[in-house]
């Protein structure tokens, strides 16, 4: 009976040793998958982490079930199965725990086991909280990195506990074997004494006693063979006296007879791992006999029968007989798998250390006394010091004096948080202090981790010097953009508010001037011309202000091409011709007298903007001239460019006036002369010329006059001249069927103006809608051939109306032309992108409107 119990106990100890390896492997695998999850944040890595951690969690549930009163044996068995233990070993593990859990040799590893389970629970809590934040999209990089750093610290603590548990199990195994061996030897001695007694009592029982002794010897052999570790004995000559089944299996032998009676050192222990000879005289196993003491060796190999070696850990005990050493007994384990696991653990720890060092953010961990215990590579770079110099130092020495109280307060606040073993208090901006004394801004996340009686605080930090500089630059840029947008919005509103009344002023002036029935008297025509002249002057002012704003903000784009300078000059002269006649100033086309120069004067420019510059310069030359004076416009090719000069006979300017000539809104005293002007024309002209990669220079002498020179790059004279725009006859008639037009406009004055302008085309049937909703309803009931749409309709914008029309099958193909006081290029582009085919800006030019009507009638 005792033999059977001994066999069971030894098997249970062996099962706990195996279970410890599985527990350790599960924990390390979980740590590895945790770090991968911290980097990838994938559900697969989180699943692998949970799967690996199930092994130590199963063992924990088994221990807790056995410690209940009364023990829950079924729950304990299920826990051990979840921990990967073999089902045949579980009953023995349960009995060993229940019978010996209070005995010191088992109580110590159970206490270590319990402490390890607490660390496993902390690791699980860390990951579950991080996983919850990741799944909810609330996790930031610093929180995940802090979780990984805390898990690494737990892993370091766990590694020490696993080694301690393994050593304690080894002690438990040896003490269990000694106890069982002592019990069996005592039993054998009792049996021997009993046998002698019975022999003396009666020779008739000799045969039975001998049989009983043989049976006991067989039981002892059975006990030896049931042990998981290898067992063999040697005499003083080193000859094998017995060997158990586990030893035969590990050494590759089939029968005891192959080893018993032979010098076992020469068979299994003859060489070192590297192949060097290992003489018996140097063998540490025989030290037990020589020095009469137990010997423990963990760094040698045994050799199998097939010539292969395996790592072993063995103990050698002297055997005493009559006060003398009669031999020794050796026990050994094949530790190849354990060493492989330990190597894997060391490699895992090194990987963890390397992973922490590869984290982009600095990671610092401090103990309960605020002394640094972890300082990764990123922290070394941030603070300009090595980890060896930082370890053991107070963390406050790496922060600015002004921030140290706040740092302590943050750390103290963590201790007061609820959350069990861990706590986190978000991101904070602090000021760090490098080893050189230089201070730098940082963003830091603090977290607290409890490991039994020990408490660690982890600081994950990032140098945000560059980030702050970028943020300041971005804020300054945003402020400039906001100012620019405000300026643009103001100018857009001003343009709209001025163009709307100008639409009525100039529109009705055009109608009065073209009236035929009855025609206006000459005096009335002169009055209308004055109205038109003042209106166009105000419109030019609005346009110049808008252009100057767009140039200064960099939003004015030009289309550069080869332009015939003489053609643009003719257009500009024709546009200021009326002004020149009124001022009695003659404009002379000097370039026309030199046909060769005229042919060569091709420049790279934006045709419209070049004409705008020449009109401005010619207008100034006329306005500031003397009555009866002259203006000469000429060209002169020079090198790779062409100079366009405008020379006047005016009063000229002083040197002081020339110094302030290009200041916006500075009219140099001309405001006191009665000459109209705004003081921005020259400023805008210079900007436009520079955008065309040219240069504008002004020279002047008092009493002589002024010369304005525009120098532009010379272009290929093969470039085509853009055709002049088609100018329809005001009194032309539409051919064919009438044109059905719907006008959406909420201003009744503009509506009346449109009615009178459209009256020049009797074939046009004009309907009016005074808001967007009414326009949509009319267009849906009776789709027009053409819709003229204002961009501000009271209840909606013109763009919103266009969107609704395009989505309605009944009106999706209606042709749209915008009629608006919004004149900015981006506003026009927005309308064209939304499906408008044309865009008429207010004040409406009658000829342009009629051209639109005629064009759609032809289509």
UniProtKB/TrEMBL annotation:
4-aspartylphosphate PTM sites in chain numbering: 790
Pfam families for this protein: HATPase_c, HisKA, PAS, Response_reg
Keywords of the record: Kinase, Phosphoprotein, Transferase
Catalysed reactions listed for this entry: ATP + protein L-histidine = ADP + protein N-phospho-L-histidine
Response regulatory domain mapped to chain residues: 740-857
Domain called PAS: residue spans: 216-269, 348-418
PAC domain span: 291-347
Keyword Chaperone: no
Coiled-coil intervals, chain numbering: none
Protein name as annotated: histidine kinase
Class in the EC hierarchy, top level: transferase
Organism of origin: Roseateles saccharophilus
Native organism taxonomy: Bacteria, Pseudomonadati, Pseudomonadota, Betaproteobacteria, Burkholderiales
